[in-house]
Design goal:
The complex is a heterodimer of chains A (95) and B (332). Chain A is an alpha+beta fold and 95 residues long. Helices cover 18% and strands 21% of the residues of chain A. Chain A has a three-stranded antiparallel sheet. The longest helix of chain A is centred in the middle third of the chain and has 12 residues. Chain B has a two-stranded antiparallel sheet. Chain B is mainly α and 332 residues long. Helix content of chain B is 63%, strand content 2%. The chains are: A alpha+beta (95), B mainly alpha (332). The interface between A and B is medium-sized, with 19 and 26 residues.
């Protein structure tokens, strides 16, 4: 008897058309078909969604939490990327 | 940033055929979904003509973003201050990002990125006519932000409610970022208008050159727009070309006054009865000339794109070779 654990799948649910699929959790399953089936049973029992995606967890490439400063901090001092950086006369400020 | 091209027919044979639905039940369900104002998603059944129209429109939109980097990129090295240079760099980078959001949305419809780019490079796919005009002075950078991005925002806000989900979501992201583009342009022009007479003249000259091409960005008149009716019916288009153009004119007139420039149209005046500004006739001969490849910069723009693509080929190949090598090493 094999003791190998079923692989892990990340589950994404689209709550209704027009919205993005959103990550909601994970399931263990032996293959894609069963992963979808289990995701349906675990995460959409109360009509939470109209569409499901499952992705093998080990296929997700994630950024390193320790790399957070060098990845994201450089955006912090580029305040000119925000519309509020530009002060316009009141009459045209809704632009 | 910039649409318009959505109504522009491409090469023959690429027209969305009004093909009969292969499955009447699916068609009925699709129509009902649109009638209820619901979104269509990538894996949903859709009529082939709807899919083709979206591929054409989204890819033209993506091409416009990418080609749109060129006229402004022209001024990055010559921006008058470090601050303006950083702002312009950020803006041009945004345009590249907008192109990528849109190519990705088009790819959900089952077309490949390489095929889309090939269609641009061969001249088969169109992009917004506005980018075939030259950026002659620094004031052009301000006027592009104010008028060209302003027109683009008018065009793009209704697209956030377009019936195709991936396109609508891309447009929401883009519209959030556009406001900075228009405001930095207007802010730049305000600074120039506080300067010397020569600087003020430069702004007026740029406004004179960009005003009419900006109005053309909304596309042909509704009565001459061959795809508009069907696109409205499908919920791809929500507001007509002429209505959007009018909205843009009405919004821009007070902005020109605050800035202290005139708009180059002697027939432009407020019409109390209509509650809108009347404006002069657009030179459609010029518009079609530019769309059909005979604008001032058409050849230069495409040649620059093709050159960048060809000169980047070795980088794309090297990156793939590197990935393959690593994979082989990993497997060994």
């Amino acid at each position: 008897m094999s003791t190998q654990e079923w692989p892990l799948w990340e589950v994404f649910v689209r709550s209704r058309n027009g919205l993005d699929h959103k990550h909601c959790g994970s399931v263990h399953a032996p293959d894609p078909k069963l992963a979808l089936q289990m995701a349906r049973d675990v995460y959409t029992r109360r009509q939470e969604g109209v569409s499901l995606w499952v992705v093998r967890s080990d296929h997700i490439v994630a950024s390193d939490p320790d790399a957070k400063p060098e990845l994201f901090d450089p955006a912090a001092d580029k305040i000119y990327r925000h519309p509020t950086f530009y002060r316009l006369p009141d009459e045209v400020d809704h632009m | 940033m910039y649409t318009q091209a959505m109504d522009i027919p491409q090469a023959k044979g690429d027209e969305p055929a009004a093909a009969p639905a292969t499955n009447a039940d699916y068609q009925t369900e699709f129509d009902a979904k649109l009638d209820r104002g619901e979104f269509v998603e990538a894996k949903d059944w859709m009529p082939e003509a709807y899919r083709k129209t979206l591929v054409r429109q989204i890819s033209q939109h993506a091409h416009s973003e990418i080609v749109g980097m060129l006229p402004e990129g022209n001024w990055i090295t010559r921006a008058p201050t470090l601050e303006r240079k950083a702002i312009l760099l950020a803006k041009v980078q945004d345009e590249g990002g907008h192109g990528l959001y849109l190519y990705a949305a088009a790819e959900t419809l089952g077309v490949s990125r390489d095929d889309l780019i090939e269609a641009l490079h061969s001249g088969k796919a169109k992009y917004s006519s506005i980018f075939n005009y030259p950026t002659l002075t620094w004031a052009d950078i301000g006027v592009i932000g104010w008028l060209v991005d302003g027109a683009a925002i008018m065009n793009q806000i209704p697209l956030c409610r377009c019936s195709y989900g991936p396109y609508a979501r891309a447009m929401i992201r883009i519209c959030k970022e556009e406001s900075f583009h228009q405001r930095q342009g207007y802010d730049l022009l305000l600074a120039m208008m506080r300067g010397t007479q020569a600087q003020k003249d430069m702004v007026q000259d740029a406004v004179n050159r960009w005003w009419w091409p900006a109005l053309m960005m909304f596309g042909p008149h509704d009565r001459d727009s061959q795809h508009s009716g069907q696109s409205m019916h499908w919920g791809i288009k929500r507001i007509s070309n002429d209505d959007l153009r009018q909205k843009f004119v009405d919004a821009t007139v007070p902005q020109a006054k605050v800035l202290g420039v005139t708009l180059p149209d002697p027939e432009l005046r407020w019409n109390e009865a209509r509650g809108h500004h009347d404006f002069g006739a657009i030179d459609w001969t010029e518009f079609w000339n530019v769309v059909n490849g005979h604008g001032p910069c058409n050849r230069e723009r495409l040649a620059t794109r093709v050159k960048a693509w060809e000169e980047g080929a070795w980088v794309r190949e090297a990156a793939l070779a590197h990935a393959r090598k690593r994979e082989a090493r990993h497997a060994a």
